[in-house]
Amino acid sequence: MTASGLPRRAATLGAAFDCAGEGIHTGVRSEVRVTPAVAGRGIVFRRAVGSGVAEVPALWTHRRSRPLCTALQVGEGPLVRTVEHLLAALTAMRIDDAVVEIVGEELPIFDGSAAPWCAMIRTAGRVEHDAPRRYLRVLKPVEHVNGMRRLTIEPADAHLLSVHIELNHFGPLDWSGPVTPETFERELAPSRSFGRVTWTIPGKIRGLWPFGEPLLRGATTKNTAALWKNTAIGGLRMPDEPVRHRALDLVGDLALAGLPLLGRVTAAHPGHEHNYALLAALMRDPTAWDVATLDADGPPRAAA
C-alpha cells in the first residue's frame, strides 16, 4: 500500500463464491460462481452455452447497448446482461482479476443494490499477487456532452467522483467522494436501482413485445426503489438514494476500462449510454491516458 492508500500490487479473490437469483430485466433465474484468477487476467465472464463455454472479457470494446443496463458480448457470441453492479463492487473493493461463471444471460439483481456483491467479496477476501497493480492514469481532460448531460474526466491521483442529477419532486441531488472500499460499501453500495412507478408498468409491457428486449420483467418493489412523488414505495434507504445509485452505476460502467482509474469524474445526469460515451472518448484518444504503476512513495509512474 502506498502513502496515498492505493495498493501497489494487483489482487484477486481469496476464495470462490456462489450465488443465484433472478435478473431485473429478464426475470429469469441465473447461477453465478465467481472465482480467483491469475495476475493480468482481468475480469472475465464465462457463460455456459449448450455444451460449450464462451468467454466475455469485461472491456469497453465488448460493451453492447441494451435498455437500462450494461451488457457485454464478443462478436455474435452470447450476451451477458446487467453486469454493472458486480463490476462496481469488484473495482471498488480492489479486485483486479476474477472469472465470473454464469449459467444464464443476466446477473442476479438481488435487492437492487451492490451491497450483496460487496458482502460476498468481503467474505471471500482479497489476496495480492506478486505483480504490480497497473492503473489507467488520465493525462488530460476528456468530455462528453449531450444536452443537459455533461460528463468529464480529468487527471487526479485517485479515483474521484462528483455526480449531480435532478428529479421531479426531489430537486437537485449531489454526491461526491473518492471511490475506496470503505466509501463504496458505506455510501454507494446500499443504494438501489430506481425508477418512477409510472415508467415501470409501460416498461414491463414494452419488454413483452414479440421482438423487444426484455425490460423490467423481474422488477418488483423488493429489488427496485419504485419512486412515487418524493419518496419510494416502502421508503428510501437515504434521502439522496437515486444520485448515489447513479454514482454506483458510473463506477461499474467505467470499470470497463479494464484497469482501475486515476482520474476525477464529474457527471451531470449520467446514465449507462453516456457513461460509456465518456469512457469510449477517453480510450479512443491515446494521448489522454497511459498505464502507470505505484512506488511505495511518490507519484504514479508510467509502467515499463
TrEMBL record:
Catalytic activity: a UDP-3-O-[(3R)-3-hydroxyacyl]-N-acetyl-alpha-D-glucosamine + H2O = a UDP-3-O-[(3R)-3-hydroxyacyl]-alpha-D-glucosamine + acetate
Keywords in alphabetical order: Hydrolase, Lipid A biosynthesis, Lipid biosynthesis, Lipid metabolism, Metal-binding, Zinc
The protein's required cofactors: Zn(2+)
Residues annotated as catalytic: H272 (proton donor)
Binding site residues for Zn(2+): H85, H245, D249
Top-level EC class: hydrolase
Tree of life domain: Bacteria
GO BP terms in the entry: lipid A biosynthetic process
The protein's annotated pathway: Glycolipid biosynthesis; lipid IV(A) biosynthesis; lipid IV(A) from (3R)-3-hydroxytetradecanoyl-[acyl-carrier-protein] and UDP-N-acetyl-alpha-D-glucosamine: step 2/6
Enzyme Commission number(s) from the entry: 3.5.1.108
InterPro entries named among the record's database cross-references: Ribosomal_Su5_D2-typ_SF, UDP-acyl_GlcNac_deAcase, UDP-acyl_GlcNac_deAcase_C, UDP-acyl_N-AcGlcN_deAcase_N
GO cellular component: membrane
SUPFAM superfamilies, alphabetized: Ribosomal protein S5 domain 2-like (SSF54211)
UniProt KW Zinc keyword: yes
Recorded coiled-coil stretches: none
Gene Ontology MF annotations: metal ion binding; UDP-3-O-acyl-N-acetylglucosamine deacetylase activity
Entry similarity comment: Belongs to the LpxC family.
HAMAP family in the cross-refs: LpxC
Role noted for this protein: Catalyzes the hydrolysis of UDP-3-O-myristoyl-N-acetylglucosamine to form UDP-3-O-myristoylglucosamine and acetate, the committed step in lipid A biosynthesis.
UniProt xrefs under PANTHER family: UDP-3-O-ACYL-N-ACETYLGLUCOSAMINE DEACETYLASE 1, MITOCHONDRIAL-RELATED
Name used for this protein in its record: UDP-3-O-acyl-N-acetylglucosamine deacetylase
UniProt organism field: Methylopila capsulata
